């Protein structure tokens, strides 16, 4: 696939980075950009050299939402026929961790894209919001589901009903983002963190991500049962033998990702 709206790079060993690249439209998410970003993420996910993925925009905007100019002429039947939102489900298939590095605007679909990621690192200028109500519509790519789970339904409703924006410090306080860094360093810090994760034994990384993602789908007893099975499975890897041997022999482990 030839990419028109994204850039891809590997900024550090084991790290695959996808950058939204429609700066003149504040990275508004059109279906092609979404498809390109998912294709690039799937490629990194399948790449044995890569252990952790990053999605980012630019300093001014992660993404200012779905492309309003494209949606303006569409009616309900056209929206249902195109069914672009179902395509967003492809993101759930990614097995490796994905970090959103967010600076500036993360609105509407941009906020929803960031929330789909496993966690978010923000710059001090990051602003999160779900302004769809100001367009006479509602969030459609997970805002009504993921935002209440992240920050509680009362505040999430105010964000969606009153177009309240959450600035970086409050997003940090609420646990919506894991870190806030100056705009000059947030991406380097995200790459360093992704590099740290990429250097961990990859099968264990994926088993942990897989189990944590089940928390929203299972009761606690079912989740504990699921975790237990992943835990037992991790005992059959070469990295388990290496990790425990290295601890006992007081030396750093040499991971083989097997
Ligand atoms: N779609 C299409 N174009 C967009 C856009 C969007 N979501 N957001 C910004 N742009 C374009 C603007 O039209 C403008 O283009 P022109 O120069 O050609 O006019 C360019 O990006 C720069 O934007 P502004 O001049 O508006 O920049 P600003 O700094 O004055 O304002 C902003 C920034 C507050 C983010 C403002 O652009 C804005 O409100 N954008 C729309 C945000 C929004 O409503 N997002 C929700 C979309 S619906 C959705 O996402 C549905 C869903 O759940 C999937």
User: Quick one: biggest sheet?
Assistant: 6 strands, mixed
CATH superfamily of the largest domain: 2-enoyl-CoA Hydratase, Chain A, domain 1
Q: Which term fits the overall shape?
A: globular
CATH architecture annotation name of the largest domain: Alpha-Beta Complex
Give the CA-CA distance, first to last residue. Answer: 30 Å
By helix and strand content, what is the structural category? alpha/beta
Biggest sheet: strands side by side, in what order?
A: 1-2-3-5-7-10
How many DSSP E strands? 10
Q: Radius of gyration in whole Å, from Cα?
A: 19 Å
Secondary structure: helix percent: 40-55%
Domain module count:
2
- Tell me the β content: 15-25%
CATH class category label of the largest domain? Alpha Beta
- Multimer state: single chain
Assign the CATH topology of the largest domain. Answer: 2-enoyl-CoA Hydratase, Chain A, domain 1
Low-confidence stretches: none
- Given the structure, what is the number of helices? 12
Instruction: Look at the structure and give the mean pLDDT.
Output: 97
H-E order: EEHEEHHHEEHEEHHEHEHHHH
Topology:
Layout: E1 6-12, E2 15-20, H1 31-46, E3 52-56, E4 61-63, H2 68-71, H3 76-82, H4 84-87, E5 98-102, E6 105-107, H5 109-116, E7 119-123, E8 127-129, H6 143-151, H7 153-161, E9 166-167, H8 168-174, E10 179-181, H9 186-198, H10 202-213, H11 220-234, H12 238-248
Parallel strand pairs: 2-3, 3-5, 4-6, 5-7, 6-8, 7-10
Antiparallel strand pairs: 1-2, 8-9
Acetoacetyl-coenzyme A (CAA) binds at residues 25-26, 28, 64-69, 105, 107-109, 112, 131-132, 135, 139-141, 143.
